[in-house]
């Protein structure tokens, strides 16, 4: 016998209420992250997010208030995780003396690349979403990126200038953002490199990928330092 819509809805509510709060909210965060990364903020459907999370749509409003609130929570959760590692790595480098360009770049890219290549933590969807928001001209996207990343970015911009005092602030900002762009682009490189090479591309592990990105980015940053 087919269930009516209300019967199915009551069943979802009951299942939702028997799950721990952190399980419900985390399921929504993961589902929302995947949807925003795939379809963008405007294209993502709250109904589809709720369906993938296994909850009714009202639960999203209960935990996050709105679609905007859900996006903010997704970015805050991931950025806090990544930025804490960045800050700790930078502090350790400074405590040990004057860091090299390579050490600075690795300090802010390693946490992102490690997360983005970790399929168990769903990091690829986050990095894909971050790429979309970073390049968006939408005021909401710009605000969320600024709130979550400007603070840590300024610390690394200052660190570049400490390594090369003659470097202008503008060049230091470019050094940070261009290196970050390289790191973000590296996460999905195999999806493009494979077809380009007719599947002869030599796939690398996370450590090898980080070494390649750091080597590539540090060359550009050193050039900017010499330019100054």
Describe what you observe in this structure.
81% of the residues lie in helices and 0% in strands. With 228 residues, the protein is mostly helical. The chain folds into two domains: 1-65, Homeodomain-like (Arc Repressor Mutant, subunit A); 73-227, Tetracycline Repressor, domain 2 (Orthogonal Bundle), CATH 1.10.357. It is globular and about 55 Å long.
CATH class membership of the largest domain: Mainly Alpha
Task: Please count the helical segments.
Answer: 11
H and E string: HHHHHHHHHHH
CATH H level, superfamily name of the largest domain: Tetracycline Repressor, domain 2
Radius of gyration: 21 Å
Query: Roughly what fraction of the amino acids lie in strands?
Result: under 5%
> What structural category do the secondary elements indicate?
mainly alpha
Low-confidence stretches: 1-19
Do you know the CATH topology of the largest domain? Tetracycline Repressor, domain 2
The count of strands amounts to 0
Which descriptor suits the 3D outline? globular
Terminal residue distance: 75 Å
Keywords summarizing the entry:
228 residues, Tetracycline Repressor, domain 2, globular, mainly alpha, disordered N terminus, Arc Repressor Mutant, subunit A
Produce the secondary structure layout.
Blueprint: H1 5-18, H2 21-43, H3 46-53, H4 57-64, H5 67-96, H6 101-116, H7 123-134, H8 139-163, H9 169-187, H10 189-196, H11 206-227
């Amino acid at each position: 016998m087919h269930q009516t819509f209300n019967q199915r809805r009551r069943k979802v509510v009951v299942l939702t209420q028997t799950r721990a709060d952190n399980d419900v909210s985390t399921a929504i965060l993961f589902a929302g992250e995947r949807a925003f990364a795939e379809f963008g903020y405007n294209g993502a459907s709250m109904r589809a997010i709720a369906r993938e999370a296994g909850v009714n749509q009202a639960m999203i409003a209960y935990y996050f208030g709105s679609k905007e609130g859900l996006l903010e929570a997704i970015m805050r959760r991931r950025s806090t995780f990544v930025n804490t590692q960045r800050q700790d790595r930078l502090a350790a480098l400074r405590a040990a003396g004057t860091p090299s360009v390579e050490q600075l770049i690795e300090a802010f890219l390693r946490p992102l690349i490690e997360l983005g290549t970790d399929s168990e933590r769903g990091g690829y969807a986050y990095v894909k979403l971050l790429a979309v928001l970073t390049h968006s001209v939408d005021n909401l996207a710009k605000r969320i990126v600024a709130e979550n990343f400007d603070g840590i970015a300024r610390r690394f911009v200052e660190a570049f200038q400490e390594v090369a005092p003659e470097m202008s602030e503008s060049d230091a900002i470019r050094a940070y953002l261009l290196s970050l762009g390289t790191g973000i682009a590296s996460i999905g490189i195999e999806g493009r490199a494979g077809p380009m090479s007719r599947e002869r591309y030599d796939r690398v592990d996370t450590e090898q990928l980080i070494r390649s990105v750091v080597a590539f980015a540090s060359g550009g940053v050193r050039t900017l330092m010499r330019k100054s």
